[in-house]
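#struct-queue
[09:14] JT: dropping the first one here, sequence first, then the C-alpha cells:
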Amino acid sequence: MDLPDPLIQLQRAADAEHARLLALPLGDAYWAQWEAWRGAAETVQAETTEYAKVEGVNRAAVEAALKRRVRHPEPAPADA
C-alpha cells in the first residue's frame, strides 16, 4: 500500500511520544507525556480514517500497513 508521507510522519511522531512516555516513572511528567502521546495517537487515527475514506480502502488495513511501514521498515536495497 502506497502511504502518503504526512501520514507516515504522524505515525513516527506518535511512536516517538510513546517512547518518551515509556522512559518516565509515574508522576506529573508521566501524565503530561501521556497526554502528548494520546493527542498524537488521536491525530494519527483521525488522519488514517480520513485517508481510508478518501481512498475507499479498509481503515484497519491502512492502519496495519502504516504501523508495519514505520515500525518494521524494509532495509534499503544495496547498490548494484
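[09:21] JT: and here's the second one, same format:
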Amino acid sequence: MPDLPFDATDPRLAAAAWSRIAEPPDAAAGALVENLGAVEALGWLTSVAGGRASAGAQDWERAVAGWAPRLENLDIRRELDTLHRLGGHLLLPGDPGWPAALDDLGVERPHALWVRGGAVTGTRAVAVVGARAATTYGQTMAAELGTGLAEAGVTVVSGGAYGIDAAAHRGALTVDGVTTAVLAGGVDRLYPVGNTRLLNAVAASGAVVSEVPPGSVPSRNRFLARNRLIAALGAATVVVEAAWRSGALSTAARAADLSRPVGAVPGPVTSMASAGCHRLMREQGAVCVTDVAEVLELAGAAGEHLTTPDRPAPPGLLDGLDPVARRVLDALPARGSAPVANVARAAGLPPAEVRAALGNLELEGRARRTGSAWARPR
C-alpha cells in the first residue's frame, strides 16, 4: 500500500479523508476516529493496510478490508480543491458553525460536512420531508409549512428532491427564508439535475451540504444514510405526504430514534400518497399536524420554544408546574376541549386529582372551563 500523497498528520485533511474512506453510516469508523482522533486512526489504517501492523480482532479485519481499497489513489486535496472552486467550505466537528445536533448521532456522526453556502442551520430547524411523487395537495401543504416556518425564523431542512422536498424549500425561499438541503451525493453534483436552479438558490439562502466528498455519486444506500442527518438537524421532523413504503418514513424513524418529535400531515383516507402518514399516526405515535402553529408547537417539545431570535424565549407550556399539573395540562387537547374523564384517561390519573389540578390551573390562567369541559387558554 503506497504512502498517502497528502499530509496525513493534518487533522482537517485526515478527517476529510475519512469521509471518503468510510461509507456512511459506518459505526466502526466512527468509533475508531472518536477514540483515536482522525490523524491517529488514519495512521493506524495505513499501517494495517500496508501490512506493517495487525488489525487484531476479526471484526476489525473485516472493517479494514472494506476501507483499504479506498486508500488507493486517495488524495483528498483534489476534493477540497473542487469544493473551494465552488465557493464551499469544509466543516468538522467542533468547528464554529458545526451543527451540534449532529453529535446526537454518536459514532454515526459525519466525519465532516462538505458545504456550499453559509450556516447549515440557525438556532432552530425543522425537517420537512415527503414523497417525490407528491400530489398538488401535498406540495401546497409543504410550501405553506416552508413559508410559515421561514417567517418564524426557522431553518427548513429537507433533501432537495422532487415533490415535497422541493416544495418545502421553495416555500422558505419565497419569503427570503433560510433553508438547507442535505444531499446523498457530492455537492458538486446537484441532484436531481432538474432541481439545479432550486438547489443553487438554497445554497444562496442557507446551505447545500453532504457528508461525502465532491465526486461521490448518489446511491440508494446514501439516500437512506443521509436521512439520519436530516432527522438529526431538525428539532422535529414533519412528513407531509408519504406512501406506504416511502423513504420519508425512514427519516421519521431516525428522528424517533433520536427522541425528536415526529409530525405527520393527514391526507384523504382514499389517497395512497398519504397512507404512510396515516400509518405513522396510527402505529408509531406521530402527531397530527395541519398548520405551521402546530409544527412550531411540536418542535418546541424537543427543547426551547421556537421564537424569533431577537426575542427571549417565553416560558414553556409546562414550566413551573408540579408533576400532576404538568400531566394534566399536557393532556388537554391543543385545540378544542375535553371533559374531565377524557383528560384523566389521557393523563393516566384519577379523575379526582385531575379536577383538583384543573381548578388550580384555572386560577393561574393556564386552563379554562368551557361548559362541562376543559381547554387550554386561548
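[09:30] RK: nice, looked through the second one.
[09:31] RK: Confidence is low (pLDDT under 50) at residues 301-314.
[09:31] JT: good to know. The radius of gyration is 23 Å.
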